[in-house]
Amino acid sequence: MKAAFSASQQGYPLKDAFTLDSGSTTHICNDLSRIEDVRPSTPGDYIWAGSSKVWIRGYGAVTLTTEGSQDKQTLHIVNVAWCPDFLCSLVSFRLLRRQGIWWDNREDPTSLRRWDGTIIAILSERHGQWIIEDTTLFQGSQ
After folding, report:
1. pLDDT tens profile 89-116
2. How far is CA 139 from the centre of its chain?
3. DSSP-assigned letter for residue 34
4. Residue 96 belongs to some domain of the structure
């Protein structure tokens, strides 16, 4: 069973963000244009969001652009569920841990690190969520 949190996207300030989620059992993307190598879901593929089932429309891979300690980094995640009804996109901390990535919250700013300690992403806290990537921030700087 897959689990995550969801509500209405309309007006939600993080709808274009990828947030780190320690409770999600799968990576979720709400924007099809971000997903590479999309493959269809099978009947019955869904995610529990509270007491509601949210249909998974497909799966694929996403490459995130992150702020590293010196410059921009990329984080590639696979088997990402496409759920256009989700508030924002989620990166499962459980799945990152299986890749040897750990969440360093001992220092400020908090970060995601590889097993050797190198920083993959410096996280920012916005609207009570830990943000790995927010595409609205990049759109303003291009």
Report:
1. 999 999 999 999 999 999 889 999 999 9
2. 18
3. G
4. yes
